[in-house]
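Lab notebook: predicted structure, single chain.

Context: the supervisor wants predicted structures on file for every construct in the current expression panel, including those that have not yet been purified. This is the next one on the list. No modifications to the sequence; it matches the entry in the shared construct table.
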Amino acid sequence: PPPPPPPPPLTMAPSAFSNTCDPVWQPKLEAVVLGTLLVLATLLIPIPQAVKVVRNKSSDGISLPTLHLTVLFGSANIASTVAVKWRTLKMCASKGVACAGGLDLFQQCAAVVSWLFTMGCILAYLHPDSHRRVHRAAFAVLLVLVAGMIGVSVAVTATKPCSKLSLGLSEFFGWFGATCAVVQFAPQLYSTCVQAGSGSLSYFTYGTMIIGGSLVATNQIFFQDDTWPVCTDEENFSMQCKDNTHLPNLTRASHLVL
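Prediction complete. Output recorded below exactly as produced.
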């Protein structure tokens, strides 16, 4: 029998980037409202931890490795999302439209900035016997890693947007972030058990993280459609644009699981 006819080409909304696989997408109003609230909440969640450390003038009971992993998780998500939403970011920067489609990226940026500020407060009140120089050197290395991951993602995506290289890098950062998320609280649990107490750990911060995580999952599952087309190379290793609702994307899946 003759081969079946090829599927019709994907029709995309007209825009400045519609000829190069444009993933610009406008979420529903309820998703915009919830996403905006999540950005603000994410920025504020770590602040009670910083306030408690400054008030107690002590960082006892707080695991710095957990905070390192938390920042690496957020930074990896930023690096991963930049490659996927590069078109949305360019449209947002040039014309001020489609910015709502990047609210999840803005939320991750807010988390990283806020947790870095909190880590700075914790480092300022480390106990003299807690290897201050080592922890501060580790913080400097963390800053280099954060800048490096985001910088590499931006540089590669700006040079070759929606390419096999940029999307492969996005998947790598997505899986790296997923790994950090799986183990990030293990050092804190170990520290709390060994010290038989929570010290200056903020119950409010970690309690709101649980609530916020539930809201993020609700937003992703029920409100964020995430239907923009993405570029893939699954068929004959040739770059094609397909509807993301019919083609599971590893980066989106890892973000949803997290």
